[in-house]
Amino acid sequence: VAMAKKQRLQCFVHTLQLVVGDGLKETKVASPSLSKLSKLSSLLHTSTTCKDVFDAEFGEQKGIPAAVNTRWNSTLRQVKAVLQCNHLKLGAVLEKAGQRELSFTAREWNLLKELVDILKPFAEATDLTQGEKVITISAVVPSILSLNHHLEKMKPQVCFLSGLVRSLQASLNKRFLGIFINMKMARTQDGITAPFSDPVYLKAAALDPAFSLLWVEPHVLVSRDAKTEVVQCVKGKCY
Hints:
With 239 residues, the chain is mainly alpha-helical. The protein has helices at 2-25, 31-46, 48-58, 72-83, 87-96, 106-128, 140-154, 162-175, 177-182, 200-207, 216-219, 224-234. The model has no long low-confidence stretch (mean pLDDT 85).
């Protein structure tokens, strides 16, 4: 049983990584900004001149970490790091270092801020379900439903990355289809065993005092009657 739960959790974290990968793959509009950021990070690690000018303005404790191509959360850390710098001062630093072409336009800067707003909850969900000293299987359903709700709320707010929001939500609903079917938020597909359809995820969430059934009301986006049916199922009256 312990081994089975461990395998499921590894699958969950990996699947969440794939969801973000799917979203970023479909979002070409962010590529120029991220390319500039990657070059800037590389420059700060290879050019003493550029690093000296940067450190003189922002201090040696500030820096922009390198990103790992296979890990989207390392790119997120990189974006967060550059956003901690003052936009205008960074432009002046790059001008002084002879790297004016790496300066971010106002549009690119705001796009990066939007990227953080969209992806930050995904990083938090990943961290939550990788804990070593807490029970993490109970966090799977609340995390997925919360992420879906987050993306739903982001739709009318985004200015630059609406495609990313749509791609993330489509991938989330596809790769965690079983959860959405169990929540009455998607329909069963004939002849297909939906991933993450095992009711153990629902029961684990309900039995964890940290979650109980508190996630049903805000994050199960269905009618009142359907929510009542979901609660009954979680309590074990329909499985």
